[in-house]
Design goal:
It contains 28 helices and no strands. With about 625 residues, the chain is mostly helical. The radius of gyration is 25 Å and the shape is globular.
Length: about 625
Amino acid sequence: MRNLKGYYAFTVYVIAITTSLFHLYVARFGMFEALRQRALHLSFLLPLAFLLFPANKNSPKDRFSICDIILAIGSLWAGLHVSITDYHRIVTRMQYIDPLTVIDIILGVFVVLAVIEATRRVVGYQLSVVAVIALVYVFFGSYLPGILWHPQYRFEKIIDHLYLTAEGIFGIPIGSSATFVFLFILFGSFLEESGASKFFIDFSLALTGRARGGPAKAAVVASGLMGTVSGSVVANVVTTGTFTIPLMKKTGYKNHIAGAVEAVASTGGQIMPPVMGAAAFIMAQFSGISYLYVCLAAAIPACLYYFSLFMCVHLEAVKTGMTGLSSEELPQLKPVLLDGGPFLIPLILLVYLLVLGYTPYLAAFYSTMLVIVLGIFFGKKRFDLKFIFTALVSGAKAGILVCLACACAGIVVGVFSLTGFGLTFSSLILGLSNGILILALFLTMVSCILLGMGIPTTPSYIVMVALSVPALVELGVDKLAAHMFVFYFCCLSAVTPPVCIGAYAAAGIAQSNPIETGFHSARFGLAGFIIPFMFVYGNSLLFIGGLSTIIMTTITALIGTLFLAFAITGWVIQKTSLLERIVLFVSSLLLIKPGITSDILGLSIGFAIFAIQWIKIQNS
């Protein structure tokens, strides 16, 4: 991001504040019609992307270039053309039948290319390359053989579909960004400015710092709490890891282990309700399931994920004989709660309003207003108009990435819907798996991880939903479970080698080898790779079914994840042999799989290993 000064900084400052105030206004007084709201959202954030992010390393870093100004003005024009100047004609015409004007075509081509270029600058080249491949496919797919073939489409129809309908750039993904997501990003920005992020870290250290491996446990707790504010793995790593990784190293964790723990903990923030990153809102839009129920369904799997990681770091600390930090090195719990505890109230209010049936964007609005009030009275800094404006600007800047990711993913999804490639891919999964669910799930998992390498969770989830969820549903998977399955593996791509952006960010802070950190991240996050299969085969983990079934499944899953932690770390009450680790891993899978027979067998095997270790200790 550029470090702008003077007039250039003031220009961006004004645009960013206006952007945030616009979204707060429509949240309180009512959203515009879908196409208009989405186009206005892009009209604010696409120009900001060109003004804030240089095209390459040779571009000026303290000012805009002429090319950036032209791209920003063109982006604004393209958005206003759809939302204001020609809105009535666009929404009342017959799509694909009424001819496009010359301006429609020019601006349509421009905005498609501008979104791809801005995404390359802000998000990275991977998603831009996927969008370019999709465009090549829509123009030249009629020359391909076999199942990849699709009919030839007129150039005007392609532009019409991608630019002037709710199927392309202005589709469901950017619809979520324009309503729910931006407001929750803004909510998180105000929380951070008010000092809530420091409270989460201090609270976690005060709570767990004295225990064995205390800083690692603090990283787990703090990253889970930060996940309610930040939807970005890298942002979460940088925010909490700057404090927790050096402390982990100080208490005896190796560099790559400290980085791996932070990466896995930060990745889990995206699956932790109530915010769950941007994808939770998009999941609600795509699946037709309420956002509140999506959060409820995510609760048990998220707890299992963090329980497994917490036990892994505890057992790792016990195995290596680590101790915690001294009282002098830690913040005191009571003062921390007195100073920062009030910042938990907005999160409580957010959940309460959602339970009452408020729309997510209205709940986010009122929660943000409460943060401002609390910041004035309890904030560490002087929380005046300057800090309010700073939060408005930070929120707008953070919203650029999600907006562009959604817009670029919209191009890909638009190509899928026009050409029918989504159905083709689903048919391919069904064919390769021969209708066998476990094979289809495995293929979907691999696809999500490969697509998610280097790409943020939101766009990879959007693309994979269009490709694979229909195939899973056709094989009998519950719709919510299918969406959640894809979501989990798009998240976990951040800690899956060789391209694992969460682990790379943590390795930079830990000064460790990125690949080694990535492999240990995958090891500590192993529960995350198993939990999605758990809730596909046992929907009760998603709060589907009777209460007694949900409770029993949760208990056996907790024991299963505990046995998995034993297998991962190679420690129960003493060091385990390779054979014992394999047996513990098998017992964890048996407990994770729903069914009384498998549960009894898994418990028997696991406790047998425990008994064997106990006998060894008594006889030694």
